[in-house]
């Protein structure tokens, strides 16, 4: 019974930590609670199963707050080398790249949660992609992919889309 209570207390603490921070990593939570990173991943999964709107991003966990911002979907196509340009353009114009979506011939729609909203997020994502020798999801679809973009309003979204088009990063079919 004592172990169960400590698990419940730890999960409540994790929930509060995620809720009260902009972003927190599983590694930081593991160090704080003296457990493994995998234990934190399991705790987050259990919290989500109970309805907590915790999302994972490329840099850690955050609480999905209800916002009154605009959400738009863009369809892009570009080379792997142009990825940083795409991400920096969106972020520099006030957007947050919520995810990346590709349509795979075998698995259907594949979605990767990104949560990229700062240059630090971009540097972290690109560093891990390059150092880890990972393939981007768009490499499965000849560079064609979608992004849900969150920003302040429709006008800002349309400006982001226009700039990406000028840079040749929007899919034209």
From TrEMBL:
Keywords: Metal-binding, Nickel. Gene3D superfamilies: 3H domain, Winged helix-like DNA-binding domain superfamily/Winged helix DNA-binding domain. Residues 74-169 form the 3H domain. GO terms for molecular function: metal ion binding. Residues 22-62 form the Helix-turn-helix type domain. It holds the Pfam family 3H. Ni(2+) binds at residues 78, 86, 145, 147. PANTHER family: TRANSCRIPTION REPRESSOR NIAR-RELATED (PTHR40068:SF1). This is YrxA.
């Amino acid at each position: 019974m004592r172990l169960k209570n400590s698990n419940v207390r730890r999960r409540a603490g994790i929930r509060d930590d995620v809720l009260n921070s902009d972003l927190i990593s599983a590694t930081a939570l593991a160090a704080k609670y003296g457990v493994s990173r995998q234990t934190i991943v399991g705790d987050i999964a259990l919290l989500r199963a109970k309805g907590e709107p915790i999302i994972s991003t490329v840099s850690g966990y955050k609480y999905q707050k209800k916002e009154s911002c605009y959400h738009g979907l863009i369809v892009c196509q570009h080379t792997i080398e142009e990825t940083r340009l795409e991400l920096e353009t969106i972020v520099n114009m006030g957007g947050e790249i919520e995810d990346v979506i590709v349509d795979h011939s075998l698995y259907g729609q594949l979605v990767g949660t990104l949560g990229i909203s700062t240059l630090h997020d971009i540097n972290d994502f690109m560093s891990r992609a390059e150092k880890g020798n990972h393939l981007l999801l768009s490499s499965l679809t000849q560079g064609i992919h979608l992004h849900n973009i969150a920003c302040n309003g429709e006008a800002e979204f349309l400006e982001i889309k226009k700039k990406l088009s000028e840079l040749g990063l929007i899919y034209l079919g």
